[in-house]
Specification:
single chain; Arc Repressor Mutant, subunit A; three-stranded antiparallel beta sheet; elongated; about 10% strand; about 65% helix; mainly alpha
């Protein structure tokens, strides 16, 4: 851990330095959250969804049959919305 020494710094200068660092960190956080929100609407394949949950494809199929997660069919392929998978995780923790 580094030491911080305040030598001849005015309180307003210190406040400006703190505000600058907080502003940078908030901008980074907002950017990260907006990227996560954009990623939340993406579709995952069955394999990606199984990897997301850390389960097998059979378990994923069972959860779909039980209505715990919603599959979306596009032709012969099955996809899942990432945002809905996250919501299903949050709902399972409430039970």
């Amino acid at each position: 851990m580094s030491k911080i020494q305040f030598i001849e710094i005015q309180p307003n200068e210190l406040a400006d330095l703190i505000n600058e660092k907080v502003k940078i960190n908030l901008e980074t956080l907002v950017k990260d959250l907006s990227m996560q929100k954009a990623e939340g609407s993406e579709f995952l394949t069955r394999k990606e969804a199984a990897k997301f949950f850390g389960t097998s494809l059979v378990t994923l199929y069972d959860w779909s049959k039980k209505g715990l997660i919603t599959p979306y069919r596009m032709g012969t392929r099955i996809y899942y919305k990432r945002s809905e998978l996250v919501n299903s995780l949050l709902e399972s923790n409430k039970r």
